[in-house]
Amino acid sequence: MKKSHIILFGFLVVLLLGCSNENQTELEETKSKNLRTSSIDEDSYKLWLEVGKLENNKSVLTINKSKLINNLNKNFTKINGVNPNVEEVSLVEIDNSFYLIFKGKKTSISFYVQESKYGRGLIVAQGTSCTTDECSQEQLGCIPYYPDNDPGHEGIGSCTPCSNGGKCKKTVTNLTVLE
């Protein structure tokens, strides 16, 4: 009788451990997907602009680059009183999140991008940007993030600090900066 209880107990332990690892894997996959797909609620935030798509798990810019650059320079000058003189734009993935990053000789301006839940591709949140002249060469310096928001909830976010201690400015507007 004792032996059958020990075997039954051993079987239950193995079964529970197996289920626990399976649930942990599902939880990790869900967290990773949430990071990539919705840090800002697409329905309540109105400043979205489709800028790209995913092709073979790589982000591809599909919007006219020259028009984006011209619009950003013009509209940032109106908002901030200073022309950032950006010259290039790219769509990049950093730590499972996407960013639209504009670069000039010294300046870097970045916007948060996410996958549309409506199949519109990659969409940029135009209302919050992070600008720096002091750490524009850092990949993780001065980019938008949403630390206080659960996935699926809107917010204006924050900017990551420059690792060299340089200044990073967050701009929040209700204007369409890139259109």
Commentary on this structure:
There is one protein chain. The chain is of the alpha+beta class and 179 residues long. The protein has two domains: 1-37; 39-172, no CATH class. It contains two helices and nine strands; from the N terminus they run αββαβββββββ. It has helices at 2-37, 65-80; strands spanning 48-55, 58-61, 86-94, 97-104, 108-115, 122-132, 144-145, 158-159, 169-172. Strands 1, 2, 3, 4, 5, 6 and 9 form a seven-stranded antiparallel sheet that branches. A two-stranded antiparallel sheet has the order 7-8. It is globular. Residues 7-38 have low confidence and may be disordered.
Mean pLDDT, nearest integer? 77
Unreliable spans are 7-38
Distance between the termini: 77 Å
Main pleated sheet: 7 strands, antiparallel
- Count all strands and give the number: 9
Task: Considering the chains and any ligands shown, give keywords for the structure.
alpha+beta, two-stranded antiparallel sheet, 9 strands
